[in-house]
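TASK: fixed-backbone design
INPUT:
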């Protein structure tokens, strides 16, 4: 299948590479008919045989728990030889096969179990999980719905259906299912855990905190408890910093402490229906009018020469009676609908404030314009560039071999043409051996020289990472699993896409290589030689395109499927650590480039990324 690119916003489309619907690996109706025929012709087993079957199933589950899967399957086969219509034996067989990765065979066995016992909660849940493992999300969802049809009070049915709705971006539906599960059995922890995750996604920190607290009340011994405690500690931790060289730091400190009080207690007290903290007019007005401005008046009264740009401006605005207009006028985006409504109702007052500010010379002309986006949309910029270019870009459906070919070429290209230059700031001789005692005392800090000096796979680095693992710091493999590639030939540039979620990355690489104006605009590069800026540009486009396609799809389009690696890259991009991610995960770990001679600025970017997104998260068991 080959399609030319258009000027449409391809990054928020998911049907570009849609193939025909996949079929299940088994014909379920055939399996059901086979089992029903078996039920009709199988005589009841004797009590003695029933007892032997129970012993065999117990022996099988013990072998399964010990990960002796072949022994487990052998025991279940013997049980079914005695009782060919034993639902438990089929269920346990399916469970073991699923653990072994034999999902198609597991699906066959769990369908047999459900045919014999059509009200088994466990069998429905297992079937749904197997279908999820096979990639049939809609069929998994239908399975959980079928469970709830026969057992409306199934806790696990609501939990799993909720997880399915999260994957399809129906967050409200997911929340409703989790609440039903919580109400059915308030003493089980999973519903609280899932509700906390949903609240976090909605920036509802009050709801998240409440659900995590309740989770610990009912699940203090749950394996997830340590991670929950770490998250609560993070949420409860408050840091206030001031500049000791600021001669007016006491006012700054008083303001910051007041804002902490608002975030931690006052906001929730004033707005008990809020799901989480939000900046409000009430907070801003109270802090400015009762703390900042009065304290500055006192300071000015005691020292006529006292001067501060911000405090003097606030004093001047307050004296003129325009404090409300100033707050609503400058905090519109933060205050949301409340500011929009107020400004619509008080246009005359806003105009009077702007006229006064212009007359007094305190109006920033840039703020006298409608609010606009701070940054250009990279995804749309790339689309427009491709659609208007003289270069012929063609979108093809790719295969795994195309991805492998593209990544191999990139690896060779970077190794041959990329040379990091800068200050040699790491003494690698001292990083050859990092004793466990040093790791215990210094933690992540002791690892940074190793990451800088050693390439992936180096035995010294591997040995030290193993030592760190013993301390609970397991570094996760976040190197992106790019699904696609870009290839040029006499007919134009071909984008071979395996997973449409990666279309942004592949398109950005194509544009970077073929459009000199783009390189000049975003990296200043005159040639197509590989550069850090190229990879940052491509990853930033990938993150934004994925965010558009997953969270903001065009009307009538299905959202992108969730991709864990792109979720993490989007998180890293929003945190401002994408350059460090590119240097460490892509250039170093994927392409094997040394980081030893990075500039101090880039070395700091790598350190910030590692400390924020790898080692710190790993230390919490994330």
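OUTPUT:
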């Amino acid at each position: 299948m080959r399609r030319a690119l258009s000027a449409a916003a391809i990054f928020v489309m998911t049907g570009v590479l849609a193939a025909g619907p996949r079929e299940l690996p088994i014909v379920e109706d055939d399996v059901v008919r086979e089992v029903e025929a078996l039920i009709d012709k199988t005589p009841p087993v004797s009590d003695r045989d029933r007892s032997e079957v129970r012993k065999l199933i117990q022996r099988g589950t013990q072998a399964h728990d010990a990960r002796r899967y072949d022994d487990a399957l052998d025991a279940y086969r013997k049980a079914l030889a005695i009782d060919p219509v034993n639902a438990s034996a089929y269920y346990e067989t399916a469970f073991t096969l699923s653990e072994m990765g034999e999902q198609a065979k597991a699906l066959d066995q769990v369908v047999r179990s459900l045919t014999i016992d059509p009200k088994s909660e466990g069998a429905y849940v297992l079937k749904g999980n197997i279908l999820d493992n096979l990639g049939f999300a809609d069929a998994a969802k239908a399975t959980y719905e079928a469970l709830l049809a026969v057992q409306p009070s199934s806790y696990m049915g609501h939990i799993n259906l909720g997880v399915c709705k999260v994957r399809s971006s129906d967050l409200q539906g997911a929340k409703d299912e989790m609440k039903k599960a919580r109400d059915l059995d308030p003493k089980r922890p999973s519903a609280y855990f899932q509700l906390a995750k949903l609240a976090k996604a909605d920036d509802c920190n009050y709801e998240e905190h409440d659900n995590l607290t309740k989770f610990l009340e009912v699940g203090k011994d749950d394996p997830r408890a340590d991670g929950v405690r770490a998250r609560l500690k993070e949420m409860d931790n408050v840091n206030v910093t001031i500049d000791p060289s600021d001669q007016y730091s006491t006012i700054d400190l008083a303001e910051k402490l007041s804002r902490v009080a608002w975030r931690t207690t006052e906001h929730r007290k004033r707005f008990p229906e809020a799901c989480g903290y939000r900046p409000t007019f009430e907070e801003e007005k109270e802090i400015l009018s009762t703390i900042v401005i009065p304290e500055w008046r006192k300071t000015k009264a005691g020292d006529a020469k006292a001067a501060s740009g911000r405090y003097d401006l606030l004093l001047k605005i307050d004296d003129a009676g325009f404090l409300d207009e100033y707050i609503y006028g400058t905090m519109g985006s933060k205050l949301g609908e409340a500011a929009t409504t107020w400004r619509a109702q008080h246009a005359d007052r806003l105009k009077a404030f702007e006229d006064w500010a212009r007359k007094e010379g305190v109006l920033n002309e840039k703020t006298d314009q409608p609010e606009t986006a701070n940054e250009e949309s990279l995804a749309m910029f790339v689309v427009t560039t491709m659609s208007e270019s003289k270069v012929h870009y063609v979108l093809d459906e790719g295969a795994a071999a195309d991805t492998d070919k593209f990544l191999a070429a990139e690896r060779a290209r970077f190794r041959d043409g990329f040379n990091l230059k800068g200050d040699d700031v790491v003494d690698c001789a001292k990083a050859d051996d990092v004793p466990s005692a040093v790791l215990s005392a210094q933690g992540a800090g002791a690892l940074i020289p190793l990451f800088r000096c050693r390439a992936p796979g180096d035995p010294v680095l591997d040995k030290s990472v193993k030592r760190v693992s013993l301390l609970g710091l397991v570094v996760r493999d976040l190197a992106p699993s790019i699904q696609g590639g870009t290839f040029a030939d006499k007919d134009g540039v071909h984008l071979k896409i395996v997973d449409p979620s990666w279309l942004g990355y592949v398109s950005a690489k194509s544009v970077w290589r073929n459009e000199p104006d783009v390189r000049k605009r975003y990296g200043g590069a005159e040639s197509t030689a590989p550069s850090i800026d190229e990879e940052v540009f491509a990853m930033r486009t990938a993150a934004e395109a994925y965010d558009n396609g997953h969270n903001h799809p065009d009307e009538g389009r299905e959202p992108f499927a969730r991709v864990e690696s792109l979720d993490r890259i989007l998180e890293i991009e929003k945190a401002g650590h994408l350059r460090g991610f590119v240097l460490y995960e892509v250039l170093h770990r994927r392409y094997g480039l040394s980081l030893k001679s990075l500039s101090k600025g880039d070395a700091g970017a790598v350190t910030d990324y590692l400390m924020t997104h790898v080692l710190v998260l790993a230390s919490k068991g994330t």
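COMMENT: Strands lie at 2-4, 393-397, 484-489, 492-497.
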